[in-house]
Structure formats: structure tokens, C-alpha cells
Amino acid sequence: MPEAVPMLDSPVTSVEQADVVVVGARCAGSATAVTLARAGHRVVVLDAAPLPSDTLSTHLLWPAGLAELRRLGVLAEVEALDAPRLTRAYADGAGYGIESPFPAVDGIDYAMCVRRTGLDGVLARAAIEAGADVRPRCRVTSIVWAQNRCAGVRYTDRSGAVVEIRAALVVGADGRHSTVARSVGADQPFLTTPSGRDCYYAYWRDTTGNPRHTAAQWRHGADLGTAFPCDDGLVLSLVQPPAVPGRSGPGEAERRYTEAVDRIPALAARLRGCERVGRVRAATGIASYFRRSAGPGWALPGDAGHFKDPVTAQGIRDALHYGRLLAEAVTAVIDDPRALDRSLLEWERRRIVECRDIFHWTNRLARGEAMRPLEIALYRSAATDPELARITTGIFSRTRRPAELYTPSRAARLVVDAVRDQRANTRAVLLDLALEIRTGARNWFTDRTALRGNTPPLPPPTRVRRPTPTVPESRATRGR
């Protein structure tokens, strides 16, 4: 059940009217706001943080993510931030290196790694230029309900005043710890998979001569590490060692990051001569999930509704993509509650169905264990088979499906190769094959149950008496 909304200590100082309130001004929120504002709707965007500002993010943009920026009309401005174009993908596992170009998406055949302060600044400016009213340092405290419909929000502005905005649609683009999700009772996922990895990253001042056109990933033992050249002459290096529950405290992130880098010889060599810039950032206790993401008058794009472990770097693309699609789905029906709710449910189903494959693929890579025999056989084959390498890179770029790697003929060849390579330990290959069969069956069942796209309805919200506004409704957001 959604939480009861408590009485506010402070009276409401003003009531405003908008078509849409977007909570969160980063990737999903800005994509939604830009698209709706350009369509002529009155959009207010609220964000608790100052803008622009940094946020926890690995911020690699595959070609599909850059294509979304182009659709929003901001790719040129993002490129002006001077992050290098990454034209090659390199993955190394068990000593086998796979290199391939990126598949083109709408003519874009390169990736970029852009720090979030610059990227989010570009997106916020685009929302303002489109006509949205973007308000930083404004913290949403509760949802306004009307006859079991979400009808707006209340927030505290930077001066401490309590403001109410009534709107036909509230978009919760406020991340994994979403206030909107909690307020509508959707904060508990209907499907969740804990990650087997923790995540730590830091920036390094790159040295002359390092390959600044390559996005690289290494697997060594149970550890995973990356090096992504980014803007300002930096390289983002992320490590994902196996998760260690309950380990935190001063210096823990620094220690685990440094130890993981040292355990990955190729990553340590890539960073040799580079100077660390700033502190180590950490994300631990990670879980991938799907939350119920649409209901009467509300929707949850971005991480508020669906999150995948950062091991596949899908978050920004999906936030931009499904934020834009949400806006396109509702723009013609904002004033028709029944049609609006149908469109929201169709949008929610679409995201679930389209993200199932990459969700399972991400959870596979997030298991936090050493490479198994069949995975080693795949790397060994892809190192000499350009088509396999292209499929692998295409999965991350969302132009190919994981099933293309595991056709019956390819799967059989991988088993034969693994047995040939592991003659002294055939049992390990057979156990790995059994695990793959069980995992495939479990994913098939999940797709036809929890991820079939027909999510169960939420219970009606619990409502309590609310304080009466002390001032008449403002027209601040009527027209532009």
C-alpha cells in the first residue's frame, strides 16, 4: 500500500497548475521534459540537487545512447564537451582479447564517455530552451491525490516555502530511491536480482600515447575492470570485484578499488603513469529490478522504474530512450484521463518486453565469479571470429540479441571446444552446461510470468486530510 501522506507542519504558500510535473531533471526527466515542452505542454521540472551537478554514474554512452541525444537535438553540444569518440571496443577474458568496431545506430558508429556534470547540464539547458520550467533545489515531499488519481505534487523550494503543483501527469524520474515510487506504493520491485558484484570507480589523468579511442574491459579471475577515456583528458576506470556484504566504512572504497586494480594486470598496466584525480566512488548492495512503473496519473521512467547493474552500462541510454517514448506516448492524451492511463500502461509494457533480454544478460555478467568453461570457449572463439565479436559488441549496443550468440549450432560448438580445452576436467564443463540450461529455463519462465508485460494493479492510495492552501492558485505556469 502507498504510504499515508502525513500532515505538513508548514502551510502551502501557493498552488500552481501545469500539464506535467517531472520530478528529476537528469537523463530520463530531461528527455521527457524536452519532448513534452516542444509539443506545447506546460511542464515543470523539479530537482532536489543544484544543476548542473555530479551524480553516481559510470556514464558510458553506446551508439544507441548517442542516437538518443541526437533525437533530442543535443548531440553537437555534448560532443563540444570534448570527450573522445570511442571507435573500438576491446574485451579481454582468460587471456583472449576480442576487438571490434561499434555497430552503427542511425549512422552513429562510436561511443562516448561523458562526465555527468557536463551531460546533465546540456540536458537541463535543452529542457529550458524547449520551454520547460526547470527548478533546482526543490525537494518533492508528497503526492497530491484526487479520487485515487495522482493529481500533482507538493515540494519545498530553496527558501523553505511549501508549494503545490497540480498536474494531469506526474513523472517520477528521481532515481533508484525515488520519492514518487515510494509515494505511489511502487518502490518494492515485482522482480529483483541482487548483483554478485560491488562497483568502484575513479578518474585518472591520462598519459600521452594511451589509446583514447578504445573502450576496454578486462576479466581476470572473479574481477572485472574497465578503462573508458572521457572528457578533460581523463580516463574513467571502474572495477567490479565480487560483492562483500556489510563491508563499509572510512577507506573501504579506496582499499577495495586499489586491490582490485592490482589484481587485474592489464588494467594496472593501462593506468601506469596516469595520475588519480579525485576520490573513489562506490555503489554497493546493488540489485537489478523492475518496479511497477505506471498508474493513474503517474509514471516512472529511468532508474525509478527499472535498473540494471552497471556492468553493461545501459542506464543512460534507457533513461533517454524511455523518457522520450513516454512523452511521445502521452502528448496527445494529456487531457483525457482514461486514454492517458491506457497509454501509460502500454508504455510500461513496452519497456518491460524490450528490456527483458538485456536484463538477463546483465545479470549473467554480474554474477561476480570467475569465467566458466563455456564463457572461456566463447571468448576464445570470438578472438578469431569477427562475427562473434560483432554480435557481442552489438548486444551491449542493443543492435543484437543474446540469443544470437547461443544458436543451437554455436552452443554445440562451444561445448565441444570447452570439452577439448578441459579434457582433464570434463565434469566442470558439464556442470556449466547444466547451469546454462537451468538459467535459460528460469529466464524463459520469468519472461512468461513476471516479465510478460501485464503487471498487477496497485492498491488505491491511502489518503489523509491535507492542509488547505493559504493563498489562491497561482497562474505562474499557465502559458509561457
TrEMBL record:
Residues 449-480 are annotated as: Disordered. It comes from the Bacteria. Signal peptide: none annotated. Residues 18-334 form the FAD-binding domain. Pfam families: FAD_binding_3. This is FAD-dependent oxidoreductase. It comes from Nocardia rhizosphaerihabitans.
